[in-house]
Structure of RNA helicase:
Amino acid sequence: MENIEANLKRYRDLVVSHLKATDIILKLPVGIITIAKRIELSQLAATSQAQATENILDILDKSTEPGKWQAFSEALHSADYPYLLEILKSTPKSGKHEDYYLKLIHVFANELQKCVVPMHILPYLLSKSVISQGDVQEITTRQLNVGPQLAFLLLLDLLPRRQRPEIWYRHFLEGLLEQGHEDLVQEIDPDYFSTQNLGPITEGKVKQGYTSSGASWAVCHSDREEMECVMEDIVEPEHDSMGDQGAPSPSNPESCDMMYQPEETYDQESSPIVSSSSSLTSSKRQASYCEPCDSFTQMKVVHSRDFRIAKDGSGEIDTTNKMDNQIKFDITSTNKLDMQSEKKMVYTPNVSVEHNSDESEDENFMTSDYDDEEGEEPPKEKITRQDPLLQLRNYQIELAKIAVGGENTIICAPTGSGKTWVALHIIKKHLEAKRPREKRTVAFMAKTNPLIKQQYRRCTKYLPQYRTSLVTGDTEESTHLDAFLPVSDILCFTPQILVNNLESKSVKSLSEFTLLIVDECHHTKKEDAYNKLMRKYLMDLERKNIKNLPQVVGLTASVGAGKSSTVDEAVNYILGIMANMDVYKLSTVQKYREELEKHVSVPKEVVIPMVTGVNGESQGMIEDIMMKIEEELQDPCLFEPALNLLLSDKPSDYKAQNYMQWVRTLEKTTSTVVTDPNTARHILACARYLVILSAALEMNSLLTVQDVMTFFSTSLKPISQHQEKQTEEEKKLFQLLKGLLQDLNRCHRNNAHNPNLVKMRDTLEEMLLAEIKERKSPRALVFVKTRATCLALARFMGKEMAKKGIKVHYLTGKSAKEGDDGMTEAEQTDALNKFEQGHYLVLVSTSVGSEGIDIPDCNIVLSYDYAGNEITKIQMTGRGRQKNSTKIALASETVIKQETVSAYRAAMMYKAIDKLKLMNEHENCGKIREIQREQLIKQEIREKNAQKKESMKKEGDFTLQCIKCSVPVVSNDYIKCVKNSHHVVTDKKFFDKIEEKSHPKPKKIEGIEVKKMIFCKNCGQEWGIYFEYCTVELPIIQIRSFKVISSDDGEVVTPKKWKDVPFQIPNCEFSEVLTLHQE
């Protein structure tokens, strides 16, 4: 770190001019900058960032804290200052000094101020890390308060702070090009286009290649072994549906089906690759895609109003067409296209040339710009750089009609029909219709972070004229949604964020929004976050205490039928969902059903019965151990009436769901009624092993004995790490399972294969290889029930299919609790991206893949002994969206029956929707209002009960004991509730009772870093996590790991959530907790 200290003296002025003090104040340790000093510096930074930075550097110079320069380096890295880090750690690279680029921009400041609207260029600069999210907020606020010209001066001040001069300069010019300011770029840097050299290549080695015409292309090999062809321009070929009949009507743009109408179709395989002509220098984007194969030759790119491709390959320009900003091209093809049988094709495309800065979206030449977007093939609309125009198909216009008219509605249409594009069209119409001085704000909600981030990308890409903000739960901003309302036209977030903000009064009411888009709205029931929002909506509507409630538009592929057994019952179920959303009209396709069927692929469904009695020997071994453990429960439960009664009511089927529920009840009852710590610990250990064994039984019927052994090893590993803390009874149980592992190992040698696995592997291999042989790019999605089965099956399939060159991966949900084996959001995104790009041809998934996370188009969907309800069936089947897709169910007799019931309910749901459309509208409205009145009465009762429950919470004292070993942990005096959710322990003695381990998947929650997990030192029970706030580590405990003991009467409760603790726990701020921690 000596370099940093020496270089800081040399470049101090540069650091002071570039570094914003507010970016690092909270990132430096308390040992360097105390809490009091942080407050003082923050106040100073409000008036002078430079002076505050000077003071921070002075504090660093004088500090005697060891590792201070390392801490400063980490703070700069965390605050995204790579250029300052490079300067301070080593000598900067030679080249043009930064003053050159800055002065060059300032020379043209007047012209830039007049033409450039800062808020339009911010998203691109943010995506390239030229500016930070904080910079964006600062510039946006400046523009709203004093106008774009003064805001642009602030942008000029912030531009050079974070990246090396040549990097921020290049990205700034690219941002200008993104906004269509080619003339300005040409004026600022006349050499820019000639020296651009087909765009920058910053990673890997470059090798030159040539098309048949001699035009050069570059292939960049990155660390991920992906090839990237960087070209000046690209036109992407259309999907197979480009051959559909029905040319768009120029007189009615909204009726446009597609802007591409060939007289005869050709398949995607034979469509030519687009190559860039070296003479074109007016490009606005770069594209990355795979190296061209021999079956393709060249395509000349021509910018014109209309272009026709004749039999002889010559192009004729039609200047009478008034449509602008279109890219036309001329095909000169050999190889795959038979020159003797070429047909005349009329091509009038409207191709997006908008640069997509999101690195996770692959711009492969074989896919359209829409391929990553819910797998839905969009209408071929006109999309220009400055004003992307969404033009819908006729059936999509029909779906949007009620919403565009301003009424609440649920848009119910099949997966792949383009509901997202309908939603974007509705948002656009809604914002366009605002009156002078009226503020309209749209809330776009989706259930998960990956999905809402994708919706955000769509909004920014296809509605760039509006200000769109993304708020996710892993940032602190999620608790301050009100800060985004004045500066946003569209806000994208998960519904729980809005629930939290309404409860905290950060958002006063739903009337802050004018339109709510509710994705996957069939979840609007029971205690789902969507339903909590809509209850608030209905209560405000009923009480008439809130004016101007927002319009509500729901999106779903299947509204569901619940547990209905008749069409009339299904009608009532759907009316219930409509009532919850205050919807009186469903939006479905009626008039243009034939057109809808053309564009939505319906997979062929095949059912393959599973072989029964598989792995019978290993099944018997596992069941024998389960019976022995149940015998272990007899004595400790004998004198506890509640437990004795529970044992007599034990389910006989170890694999049934109700057996697992019985074990959970045993755990809860034990924690409540058993007072002897050793007895309770023994029973809970038995219950824990029964859960593991029951899960192993299910795996045993689906996978190999080796997979079951691996599952046991993984499950027992945490227990084995705490063997020295085990009681004699626990050691006996552990030895039972250890002996079972040895028996299974012997069994494994005799039963290496599961015939059901072999059948599935062979079926998938045969279908995939047949597709590959035809030079197609197949994808297969395999659904299973549990996470453990998913991981094991992916391992097996990956090993088996690697012999055929087929790569397999898994996709599961996020961690349900600390320390489990769920995927992080980044891991999910990486798996999906590689599946889309063809790196993985098979993705084994839990139900998370059927809904919530976007899955690219695939042509094979296989469910392995897994059947959900009618909604799950429709969602899973809808994953196979390519034409001639296949849905295979490899299932046991029980699951086949469930599939039959789900199919029956799905058909019943469609009949119910049709019946609803034919029913008397006035009668439907009456039923919906009656349901709403009943719901409001129930909600009032819930609120009164909640208030009563809260008022009944005792003011007395209590103690927490470990749920496993009953060791006393902490009293209520040392438990503080922060932000109404985080329960922090401030007792110094607490740290003597815990062991800590690194978190397997560090993450951020509301801006708080989670790095470690904490466990009971006595028995190894997981207690909670450490989180880092202002560089101070504080322990947060999870109440499900403890028993709550009343100090007054000794009453014991075992709540799963903190809100169910029957005692009052004071709220406080983090600053108070930090003060207590330092005392």
Notes: The CA atoms of residues 138 and 278 lie 41 Å apart.
